[in-house]
């Protein structure tokens, strides 16, 4: 993969931090963004090629300032990986479900990604071979209980990127949608359910880095989870009987 300048959001922990390390070790100049530096502090002491630009992606009032901050470091971006995201689960057993959760999750996972595209698009257009990458999720491949907010936001990301791919072709900007499975991150460590084929952040980042070299339209991994979700889509009644919460006798 040609070395260049990459901007990574959600870079202070989890997959974003692992991707930052991956690109730094490969010799790229990395501009990392998150609300706070987090674990990027120690990386900054090791790599001169790492720059931190703070960005709360859910705050669209920051778009202009963040774009100007990026421009103060570089006139172009060769690759952008929009990885920042969050997750909450809707509890339908609650007498008053938290429907406002939909707003919170969409504001980060979907509108936050849209804000990030707004920031970086002018800089991508200045690259000789630009690549825009967004992170969706394997959760969009089949329905999961309590994932109404998270799954819907990631499905929106997937469609947005698919449509954007068509409109950005005239500018020679390649667009890739990544669909990772269960990855061991601070977010997933809160999960109380089984996570088949769970992988480390470093493993996920290596797979992403390798896949992005060929600039695919989509890259879903691991394949074993993809196969399981394929079965879920094609046998929805069986999938429902396996995953849907069982009726509580007290309800």
Structural class: alpha/beta
Enumerate how many helices there are, as a single number.
Answer: 9
Give the N-to-C terminal Cα separation.
Answer: 56 Å
Shape: globular
- The side-by-side strand order for the widest beta sheet comes to 3-2-1-4-5-6-9
Name of the CATH superfamily: NAD(P)-binding Rossmann-like Domain
Radius of gyration: 18 Å
Unreliable runs, pLDDT <50, ≥5 residues?
none
Largest sheet: 7 strands, parallel
The count of DSSP E runs of length 2 or more, i.e. the number of strands, is: 9
* Total of domains: 1
Report strand %.
5-15%
Question: Helical proportion?
Answer: 40-55%
H/E topology pattern: EHEHEHEHHEHEEEHEHH
What is the CATH topology classification name? Rossmann fold
Architecture (CATH level 2) name: 3-Layer(aba) Sandwich
Topology (SSEs and partners):
Layout: E1 5-9, H1 14-25, E2 29-33, H2 40-46, E3 50-52, H3 63-71, E4 79-82, H4 101-109, H5 111-124, E5 131-135, H6 148-168, E6 174-180, E7 183-184, E8 199-200, H7 201-212, E9 218-221, H8 223-234, H9 236-243
Parallel strand pairs: 1-2, 1-4, 2-3, 4-5, 5-6, 6-9, 7-8
């Amino acid at each position: 993969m040609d070395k260049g300048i990459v901007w990574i959001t959600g870079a202070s922990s989890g997959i974003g931090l692992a991707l930052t390390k991956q690109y730094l070790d490969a010799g790229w100049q990395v501009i990392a963004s998150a609300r706070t530096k987090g674990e990027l502090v120690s990386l900054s002491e090791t790599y001169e090629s790492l720059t931190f630009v703070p960005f709360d992606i859910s705050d669209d009032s920051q778009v202009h300032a963040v774009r100007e901050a990026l421009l103060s470091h570089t006139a172009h971006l060769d690759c952008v990986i929009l990885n920042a995201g969050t997750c909450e689960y809707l509890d339908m057993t609650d007498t008053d479900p938290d429907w406002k959760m939909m707003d919170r999750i969409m504001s980060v996972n979907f509108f936050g990604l849209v804000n990030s595209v707004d920031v970086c698009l002018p800089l991508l257009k200045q690259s000789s071979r630009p690549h825009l990458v967004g992170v969706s999720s394997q959760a969009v491949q089949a329905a999961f209980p309590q994932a109404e907010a998270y799954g819907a936001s990631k499905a929106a990301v997937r469609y947005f990127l698919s449509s954007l791919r068509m409109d950005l072709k005239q500018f020679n900007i390649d667009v890739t949608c990544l669909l990772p499975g269960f990855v061991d991150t601070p977010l997933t460590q809160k999960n109380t359910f089984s996570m088949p084929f769970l992988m480390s952040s470093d493993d996920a980042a290596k797979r992403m880095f390798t896949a992005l070299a060929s600039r695919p339209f989509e890259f879903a991994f691991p394949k074993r989870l993809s196969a399981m979700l394929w079965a879920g889509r094609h046998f929805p009644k069986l999938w429902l009987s396996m995953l849907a919460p069982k009726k509580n006798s007290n309800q």
